[in-house]
Amino acid sequence: MARMIRPLANLYEQLRRLPGIGSKTAMRLAYHIIDMPAEDVRQLAAALHGAKESIHYCRCCYNLTDGDLCEICSDSSRDRFTICVVEQPQDIAAMERSRGYRGLYHVLHGVLSPLDGIGPENLRIRELFQRLQRESISEIIIATNSDVEGEATAAYLAQLLKPVGIRVSRIAHGLPVGGDLEYADEVTLSRALENRREM
Amino acid sequence: MARMIRPLANLYEQLRRLPGIGSKTAMRLAYHIIDMPAEDVRQLAAALHGAKESIHYCRCCYNLTDGDLCEICSDSSRDRFTICVVEQPQDIAAMERSRGYRGLYHVLHGVLSPLDGIGPENLRIRELFQRLQRESISEIIIATNSDVEGEATAAYLAQLLKPVGIRVSRIAHGLPVGGDLEYADEVTLSRALENRREM
Which of these, B66, B79, B111, B175, could form a disulfide with B103 (CB 3.0-4.6 Å)? Predict the structure, then answer.
């Protein structure tokens, strides 16, 4: 049986390592890339290099940026008294799409996960407290994910932040907008009941 | 609302152009690549360049190769009297995985598709006839796909090849091995009946 030729096998293996790219997709992509015009391949490779080399963390909130401060930290029109704590830079993108928030952010770059050996010292928690000393923050909104690790991290942060005397809140959990009661899972439904508001 | 920073947007757009990569996957991949160690990103980019630069078509059968002749054409242990005609190099990989074929191949690099403006002159058909003059071929197996374009291309090739006096065959169509009669589509089932063999 014919083996895969070396450069093709190499490309396949590299693509295969990307998240969500299975062996069939990696193979299809590899063949597609070989068929692409050389200029397009050059641009794709340049985009990889460019993103890796020029993107780093904002020195204030640890969002991604190609400058010194990220776009949000350097935007003087934003509410500078509120910090929304998220797990990952992509969570900021999601929050911004909602257009419901005008304050600042702080990216933890992970969640507490003892099983994976990730403790508080691996997250940007110390940097958050340094910000609280420098900036005059009145509220911290904890917007970690709603899974076990996200909830544990939120609880841990709330416990640390309470003594500082800053208002700490957690984003609401409940029925998604447009969601059907019939198909909601029990935990979401009981959270939605618990957090009911007077009308 | 914060825009995506330029190098990230650029990477996203490049990934988005790949087949089967939707906007969510492109975004997830872009964030993943930014998080990857610089050395891994360099290797991925090098694999792209390497594959594109060193892979070209075998001068005999138009399979992919990084040499002059592909591995199959230069393998003296293969049956040199049979050519299996396929649409794409990846079809050779599929045939080889089946381990059911020991002859040579010829890659058309496409199928007849008048709607897309692809006629016989855009396929490697002339090159196939040149091979027939050079080599002593006794059978041509047409293994184009079983869709409308694949069938039309097979019929066209068979018509061209008949006068040459070479045996022309088409791979069989029928019920997939392990397939359930109950769930087979009508066309496949009627082809399976038509092509029934005595036991």
Answer: B79
Residues in chain B with CB shorter than 8 Å from the CB of A101 are none
Residues B90-108, mean pLDDT to the nearest whole number = 91
For the segment B128-176, what is each residue's pLDDT rounded down to a tens digit? 999 999 999 999 999 999 889 999 999 999 999 989 889 999 988 888 8
Residue ranges of the domains in chain B?
Answer: 6-54, 64-198
Across the interface, whether the CB atoms of A51 and B88 are under 8 A apart is answered no
Chain B CB contacts of A11 under 8 Å are 47-48, 50-51
| pLDDT score for A180 | 82
Q: Under CATH, what is the fold of the domain B64-198?
A: Dna Topoisomerase Vi A Subunit; Chain: A, domain 2 (3.40.1360)
pLDDT at B48: 95
Inter-chain touch B28–A42, beta carbons under 8 Å:
no
Residues β-bridged to residue A167? A139
pLDDT for A107 equals 97
As averages over each run of 10 residues, the pLDDT of chain A (199 residues) reads 80 94 93 94 95 94 94 94 94 88 95 94 96 93 91 94 90 83 82 79
Task: Give pTM, 2 decimals.
Answer: 0.79
* B6-54 carries CATH number 3.90.110.10: no
Which chain A residue lies closest to B11 (C-alpha atoms)?
A47
Residues A118, A109: Cα–Cα separation, whole Å: 11
Alpha-carbon distance values, B104 to B58, B60, B85, B108, B150 (Å): 12, 10, 9, 13, 20
